[in-house]
Design goal:
The chain is of the alpha+beta class. The chain contains seven helices and 15 strands.
């Protein structure tokens, strides 16, 4: 009761200072107030923030919600952050401990911690918004399909990394209003055995992106040759996998390097933080992307599908970047993706709840 993530059962952390990312709170979930007030989230710029704004390319449509509807954005953001922190507390309690591992596929892992984290997140959401629709990676779809709000929950993004005690992994929570991201939070686990810690990324539509309460911004790098890039590969070794392997090789030849970390939400937050310039991947699910894409966009970045078309969280490909590099990246990624479409690969929307009304 009342433990922060840093002051978990891992004894060697007991002398650490509590980071801003996870403040102490009780496991007893409290309903949150309807309005938090306009001054409740005052933050300062951090060193990573780029003070001169980088234009988000005007020819790429915004993915974030234009409105959060009848619920104030401040309230949505507070519940999103509380939910992500609550799930992260479960994960921190389990890190470094033996895991009961099961398999969704040949190499696609799921642990008891995934399920326990999702249950903790769900408790927060349902306590505050009983009539909202929820899509969780482990539990599927629950709630009222007539709701304008859809919560997309990845209770442990990067399960394989977690199972090996290898950073990076995270808890990712995003909420959509009529199909578009309205608020988001990602609690990233950093460090490793003997020094686990966390930091929290958050964003609301039109409200900017933050890490541990400090504003962040994408990088200003204008040349692919000076960029550090990130991608990911799914579990199916099909045509999309082979195409991205070829893109991996191409960009490795012309950039400072391409990393594959294994946690989509973390990868996108790193773009928002300005420490990498871009991330792309085929076949992600809504719970993989709902939080990360909003955080990137609110940090000044650009989000599209991998062929350059308008993106929504039910799409089967995503390309995020610092904005100024987006068109240059699409010169290679776009044609490769169009070739897949011409071969008959399915790029239709998926995991969109039936009868869920959207503005996309």
């Amino acid at each position: 009761m009342g433990r922060s993530l840093v002051f978990s059962s891992v004894s060697f952390l007991r002398n650490f200072r509590i980071p801003n990312s996870i403040s102490p709170f009780s496991r007893e979930i409290q309903s949150l107030p309807l309005s938090l007030g306009s001054n409740s989230r005052h933050r300062s710029l951090c060193a990573k923030a780029v003070l001169t704004e980088v234009s988000n390319q005007s020819n790429y449509p915004k993915v974030g919600a234009q409105s959060t509807g009848p619920i104030p954005s401040s309230q949505l953001l507070q519940v999103v952050e509380t939910a992500a922190k609550t799930g992260a507390e479960v994960v921190m309690d389990a890190v470094n401990k033996p895991q009961n591992i099961n398999y969704k596929g040949l190499t696609d892992l799921v642990t008891d911690t995934d399920k326990m984290s999702e249950a903790a997140v769900l408790e927060v959401v349902k306590k505050n918004f009983r009539d909202h629709l929820i899509l969780g990676e482990e539990g599927g779809l629950i709630g009222d399909s007539s709701s304008d709000y859809l919560w997309c929950i990845d209770p442990l993004d990067g399960t394989t990394n977690f199972a090996h005690c290898y950073p990076s992994f995270a808890v990712s929570v995003g909420v959509l209003f009529r199909g578009k991201p309205a608020a988001a939070a990602v609690v990233e686990f950093v460090g490793g055995p003997m020094c686990w810690n966390t930091r929290i990324f958050s964003a609301s539509a039109g409200g900017g992106a933050f890490c541990n309460g400090q504003k962040v911004h994408v990088s200003r790098t204008k040349q692919v040759e000076q960029s550090l890039l990130v991608t990911g590969f799914g579990y199916e070794h099909d045509d999309a996998w082979a195409t991205n392997m070829e893109l991996f090789k191409q960009f490795t030849d012309i950039s400072r390097g391409v990393r594959r970390l294994g946690a989509a939400a973390v990868d996108m937050c790193h773009v928002a933080l300005g420490i990498v310039e871009s991330y792309w991947e085929y076949r992600l699910k809504p719970w993989d992307m709902a939080a990360g894409v909003l955080i990137v966009e609110e940090a000044g970045g650009t989000v599209t599908c991998m062929n350059g078309e308008r993106f929504c969280v039910f799409d089967r490909s995503v390309l995020v970047s610092n904005g100024v590099l987006h068109a240059k990246l699409l010169e290679r990624i776009g044609p490769a993706t169009e070739k897949l479409k011409n071969k008959g690969l399915d790029f239709s929307l998926w995991y969109k709840p039936e009868n869920y009304q959207t503005d996309i």
